[in-house]
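Q: Here's a chain of 101 amino acids. Please give me its 3D structure as tokens.
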Amino acid sequence: MNRIDLSKHKGKTYRVLSGAELGREVRKELNIDVLDNQAGTVTFCIPESVYSLNSSFFSGLFQKSIRNLGEKKFREHYKFECTEIIRENIEDGIFNILNTM
């Protein structure tokens, strides 16, 4: 099982994860195209210090994964350890991606 701290990117710690461009940067840095095809689960740890993850960031990070894997397989493969507010942000992101497919 892979564990990834989503609050860290290029040596910086983020409190707000915002923007599709940053999401795409993080996707590339974390090699998510490869993670999509690995066996087992991948857990993203989003600490309480991150208080917002907007749907455009989530879309930049995971739109390709959801389109390639489908919602069910995406939810089985990727897990999120986070606050309830961030979980709602993630659900909003998934909803937005699914409604633009």
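Q: Can you summarize the key feature?
A: The two ends are 29 Å apart (CA to CA).
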